[in-house]
Design a protein that fits this description.
Elements lengths: L1 E8 L2 E8 L2 E7 L9 E2 L3 H14 L16 H10 L8 E2 H7 L6 H9 L12 E2 L12 H11 L4
Parallel strand pairs: 1-4, 5-6
Antiparallel strand pairs: 1-2, 2-3
Length: 155
């Protein structure tokens, strides 16, 4: 059974989804949440919210809630690589592609990033354009900028 709960945060409303005591999705206000999920605040969801809130206040740099990374094998490989981008750092889509041994895979990395089911915790916001530009983010570029500013102490 999947459960979700909604929280108001400094970056807007988020919905955190749990399945089998692991976080599987985080949705932003502008995203549609599956309607077959029971709205219940579980212990794991509450802990995830507490950690995200601490992160948004600049008090946490790493997450310790249990997550289950879902997607295709390729997407999972990309998401695991995103977990290696340190707090406060960024990488280009090309950087991530090179780390995965795919020198021409920037677009594929972007496509996987776009489908990241656990943003913030799996830090797809840390992936930027080769020229340093902010590109695509499920929550919108304003939230991406806010997260990057927070991590660089500009927020």
């Amino acid at each position: 059974m999947r459960y979700c709960f909604y929280y108001r945060t400094s970056i807007g409303l988020i919905c955190i989804v749990e399945n089998n005591s692991k976080i599987v999705n985080i949705y932003f206000e502008n995203e549609i949440v599956d309607d077959d999920i029971e709205v219940v605040e579980t212990i794991v969801i509450r802990e995830c919210y507490i950690q995200i809130d601490e992160y948004l206040r600049g008090e946490r740099k790493q997450f310790s809630v249990p997550i289950e990374i879902t997607g295709t094998d390729f997407q999972k490989q990309v998401y695991k690589e995103l977990l290696n981008i340190p707090y406060g750092a960024t990488a280009s889509y090309k950087d991530v592609a090179l780390r995965l041994g795919m020198p021409k895979g920037s677009r594929a990395i972007g496509g996987a990033n776009n489908k990241n089911p656990i943003p913030i915790i799996v830090p797809c916001h840390r992936v930027i354009g080769k020229d340093g530009s902010l590109t695509g983010f499920g929550g919108g570029l304003e939230i991406k900028k806010a997260l990057l500013d927070l991590e660089s102490n500009k927020g």
